[in-house]
Design goal:
- By secondary structure, the chain is α+β, with helices and mostly antiparallel strands.
- The protein is built from 15 helices and 13 strands.
- The strands form 3 sheets. Strands 11-10-9-12-13 form a 5-stranded mixed beta sheet, with helices on both faces. Strands 1-2-6-5 form a 4-stranded mixed beta sheet.
- The protein starts with a helix and ends in a 13-residue tail after the last helix.
């Protein structure tokens, strides 16, 4: 197969022809020209236009061929557009705007950037880091422009720490499709309002439930921006995390009280109280059996934790509400301050907790996606700016549509 034929298939050019191929000192140079009777189109609106003249030759980087850098050289035509009423540059099929990379190279760089760190991709293709960033940016812009949200039933909202110093990004996920819908800098009320300002209309009529933690700015924003029929569900795993913290606070407080008389009694018992009984090792189970015979505060807290697990076994909201009220009385009369505080927090957010029995959704998928987001930052050793980090999240987690290519290099 000739090199011209190979390049013609990868470029998918119909209005242009390859004049010659030269092996230069820095790679392969390919000279192109338009066919004599071809029609020209406006590069802005795509309208058929009349040729007016030619510009100086421009150079585009193409996909390397057998390790040799490939450069396309072409003199674009200037056309008079009847729709724009301006003199514009013709539409070039292998180029996007004024970018000096071909669409195929942009697609290849952005595809590799999903799997590898951006600086590694830059070294592989002998381009700069900014070139890879530009390729990813163009790919994301194309995907966001051509993306359709479709019927989104459930969304999950959670914050993600980007770096030290309380730098967060707020991520909104589609729980059914397991994709990132939107990401924004910060975790304030204004951050989430920006999401509803951009996608609120697209979600109307289809959104049924929103799952998030009990962060008050998120709660206020969701209630102000969703329709009346949309249900707010508080994440089950965040509730259990709050309960485990209360249990651990009881253990710490009692360990301080026993420090003088018996300092070794509760030493190295943290995970005995926090783990589920079926997950305990034989050694931990034996020590728990011994501690349960003693009249300890942590033992009362542990029993309350285990009885709280029974709440999630109910199938009807009414029965779950009765059991939650009963557990609230037990916790508030346990004479354990951390458990009382947790019980009153549940009472304050009772409706959102009980909505789980109407829509059994959790942020478990969200936490899994957040772990993927962290791995993206780790393999790139972090991002200096929020914009590049959010760009990488959209690129890897957004499931964005990609431009159609006749030839795929991966």
């Amino acid at each position: 197969m000739l090199i011209e034929t190979l390049l013609r298939k990868t470029l998918n050019v119909k209005r242009h022809r390859i004049i010659k191929v030269i092996q230069a000192a820095d790679g392969i140079e390919i000279y192109l020209d338009s066919h004599r009777r071809c029609r020209f189109f406006c590069g802005r609106c795509g309208t058929s236009a009349k040729k007016r003249g030619r510009l100086n030759p421009r150079h585009w980087k193409h996909v390397p061929l057998w390790g040799f850098p490939v450069t396309l050289i072409y003199s674009p035509a200037r056309v008079t557009c009847p729709k724009c009423h301006k003199v514009c540059v013709e539409d070039i099929p292998w180029s996007q705007g004024k970018c000096r990379l071909t669409r195929e190279l942009i697609f290849l760089l952005s595809s590799m950037a999903k799997l590898l760190a951006w600086d590694v991709v830059a070294k592989m293709f002998n381009v700069s880091w900014n070139t890879v960033q530009s390729a990813v940016k163009q790919s994301v812009e194309y995907g966001l422009k051509h993306r359709t949200l479709g019927k989104v039933l459930y969304i999950g909202i959670d914050e993600l720490s980007r770096r030290k110093g309380h730098k967060y990004v707020t991520n909104v996920y589609d729980l059914d499709q397991r994709r990132l819908i939107w990401s924004g800098e910060g975790r304030k009320k204004e951050t989430l309002e920006e999401f509803f300002r951009m996608h609120g209309k697209a979600l109307k009529g289809s959104l049924m439930a929103v799952c998030c933690d009990m962060w008050q700015p998120y709660i206020d924003t969701v209630k102000d921006n969703v329709e009346d029929g949309v249900v707010l569900v508080f994440d089950k795993f965040h509730l259990i995390a709050h309960l485990n913290k209360a249990i651990d606070d009881v253990r710490k407080e009692e360990a301080r009280e026993l420090k003088k008389d018996n300092p070794e009694l509760l030493k190295k018992t943290r995970y005995i109280w926090l783990k589920n009984p079926e997950n305990l090792t034989d050694k931990q189970r034996a020590r728990l059996g011994y501690l349960e015979k003693l009249n300890l505060k942590i033992n009362r807290a542990y029993l309350l934790k285990e009885t709280f697990r029974d709440l999630w076994s109910y199938k009807r909201k009414g029965w779950a509400k009765k059991y939650l009220n009963k557990w609230f009385w037990w916790a508030t009369h346990s004479r354990l301050k951390p458990l009382r505080d947790f019980a009153w927090m549940l009472r304050k957010h009772r409706d959102g907790v009980l909505n789980y029995f109407k829509f059994r959704i959790t942020n478990g998928i969200v936490e899994g996606m957040n772990n993927k987001a962290k791995s993206i930052a780790h393999r790139c050793y972090g991002f200096r700016t929020e914009s590049n980090y959010i760009l990488a999240l959209y690129h890897c987690l957004g499931k964005l549509p990609e431009p159609e290519n006749v030839y795929r290099f991966l």
